[in-house]
Specification:
The complex is a heterodimer of chains A (498) and B (425). With 498 residues, chain A is α+β, with helices and mostly antiparallel strands. Chain A contains 17 helices and 20 strands. In chain A, the strands form four sheets. In chain A, strands 12, 13, 14, 15, 16, 17, 18, 19 and 20 form a nine-stranded antiparallel beta sheet that branches. In chain A, strands 5-6-10-8-9 form a five-stranded antiparallel beta sheet. Chain B has 425 residues and is α+β, with helices and mostly antiparallel strands.
Amino acid sequence: MTELALPQIDRTTVSKKSLIVSQLKKFTNEENVLSENEEIKPYETDGLAAYKQTPLAVVLPENTKEVSEILKFCNEENIKVIPRGAGTGLSGGALPLQDAILLGLGKFNKILEIDFDNKCVVTQPGVTNLGITHAVQHKGYYYAPDPSSQLACSIGGNVAENSGGVHSLKYGTTTNNILGVEMVMMDGTITRIGGKTLDQEGYDLLGLVCGSEGLLGVITEVTVKILRKPQSVRAALIGFPTVEDGGNCVSDIISSGIVPAGMEMMDKALIDATDKFSKAGYPKDAEVLMIVELDGTKSEVDGLLNKVSEIAKQNNSNSMKLSNNEKERLAFWSGRKAAFPACGAMAPDYYCMDGSIPRGKLSLILKEINQLSKKYNLAVANAFHAGDGNLHPLIMFDGSDKEQLRKTEEFGAEILKACVKHGGALTGEHGVGIEKRELMCEAFNNDDIQQQLNIKKSLDEKNLLNPGKVYPILRKCAEEGRVHVHRGEEKFPDLPRF
Amino acid sequence: MSTEEKKNSQISLDSETLSPSTEKEVSEIVREIYSKKLPIEITGTGTKKVFGYNLQTAKKLSLSQLSGIIDYQKEELYIKVKAGTPIEDIEKILEENNQELAFEPIDFGYMINGQTNKGTIGGYVACNFAGSRRFKVGSVRDHILGFKGVNGKGDIIKSGGTVVKNVTGYDLSKLISGSFGTLVVLTEITLKVSPKKQSQITVIVYSDEIKKISNLFDKILSSSNEVSAATFIPEEPAYKNYEHTKNKIFKFNDLDQEGSFLAFRIEGDRRSIDERLKELKIELDLSNFKSSILDVHQSVPFWKKVNNLELFSGTKNNILRAVMPPAKCETFSKFLNKNYKYYIDWCGSLFWIEVLDKDDEKINKIKNFILENSGYLTILKKSENFDFQDTLFTIDSTRLMISKKIKDSFDPKKIFNPGRMYREL
């Protein structure tokens, strides 16, 4: 694995470990401070399992006051802090450092208030994304953003990463679905931003914090909006003989004024892989396959589904199925949701990329990816959140072959650079973390990055909170990163990834 | 700095109003005023000048020459424009392509001097005041995909881009929305655009019982039938000094009953509208109310009037903007009812309130009530004899401290609109 540079280890801090651990035990129950190797090993990595470092110690505070005291102490003593939710992030945003305290929010696991009158839920950050929906679904409500790891990922982590999901095409990402947070700054200051109102007075600090990848503060409470479940949900499974036809269909659906709840696309390589893996019964003659999901009132959904099928026919679709019940709809999704494990079964290792591009460039980028696949002689399968131009190419390789690994990394970096070149972004929903840190110069120039660093400095003067993430350490734009899965040993093998 | 750069940076600051026509010129001007530490007022066409504290700067930076559509990609649902582009130019080209800005830009011209005067897109982003559809589609900030601008040192910076899925770096598009020009001089803005709905109707429900009204708002918010706007227009207080404009402004053939009313809008294709109307009638128990329906020809102008604050057209009084948690709608309405001219938008969350001139004590009372009930207040328009000593925008001390740090990271010498939002920024 190519080693990404991490901040230099402060040996003085490491040498004071026992002193620091005993200090931390003053702020919270002793059993909440972990420092023995076997206790802290589970925290050595997150969803980007290729990178590992054992933290100095792990502290699991139980309330906001404890978080505040711990941060204040660390700030005064110049000790780095890495915040962590469920540790499911795919870009290494919660990767520990040897001279840093890992601050786990796992004990913040309670929903504090379910407020149907204000259509919101106030929750601690360690509650899972799906846990919120489970708490309100008995009254027909749900929390809209649905990252594929929603069973395990925490809402605090979602705020840090501005997580999206399959349905963000219609319902937006985390930033569009939260009303407020309580946050502790690195110097221990506790602040509340927003609340139960729409928008807030003054600067939009909520918008700044959402997606800041744990660099600006530690989230200790979140207020999320809840929505009423749509009355009707139906999906179409559509195959196309060429990539261009599929890409054009995506553009035509969007420009016709239809906003599907979700619109997913898979290429031939992935159709074959998932078919072998999950027996989803996808059409064999399709070069690309699309799942279009629509929700709303019954007649509206029926009408829109007809429109979608007409647009698909105009774009030469060669197979089409429309779901008539929930069982059929879920069957359409079964293959798509098995995409990642299916790739894991095809090669010893795979890298998952996360770029985004304008929708109209889908077929173009797919062609470029296929050309790169030939150039590097590495197989690739493509899953797209096509409706919002978010790509997840999965590059298959053998990590035990150093040369293949190097080529894979180059391949991945070329894909992300192509995304930026075509007017897209380096990361659509996984975050920059350490993974794409050195590629930031592809998207931003020095002045852009300096402004962001100035904000960071204004709120965390000593750069102690989650250092070494998001912003290039050397600003050299190296070609590194991506999610690396070795022999199917994903960090969270049970989580669906799509 | 190279010799050529030095030469280029010799910008004349002679005139009172500086009107750069390129981003580079904006950057050069800001570099100059930064080196001289000259505070400057940033304006577009001046339509939102009355918001915030009056500025006493010697110079103005007008972005009115920085105007024009840079790139409109209909299929990609975005439009990239220069910051000084009139919002009407943007709305016109979108209209021609059957698209729109979903946040329904408010025309503040009516409230300010009695006639339409919309201003530039830069102003809309700087204020972040969204129209009636806010509770359904988000605010102005939710429709900004990216921007370019010049920070307080003269550096040209950017954030975001043109795609909807983008989590690369801090989301500064959100932060600069609603910052009233105190962080950056915007030069370029990329907006998400939306397909226009095929048709719409508006249901008018006649009632002046606050409890019933807030109950209706709650049911609308709880419904999955996608209502895209809901307002309550109460009878004006009998108090003489308030101008009675309601019946004149909301004059429609099918708005045929006297008194206070709630109105809600259903948008979509005809079949879907009919189906949802049928369900909403049951959900809201509309058989218990007098009600009527405005067709598309009445519904469209109706919401323009609501959105554009035409009820306060040309008023000389103070105008307050309060946002409350939706469940506080009833208590706050009862507090205001019959004492103030006001109306409610955003399905029970947004209150527009008119307070008579020289009534600072009442503003204080309203403010305290709002803060006690977890809302927030902006004193938007100040009357001639306005002498309110407190802040125009509410905030707590911790967030003000954080805001000061953020201001410092963009504009360390406090040259952009100093004191416009808060005296400390």
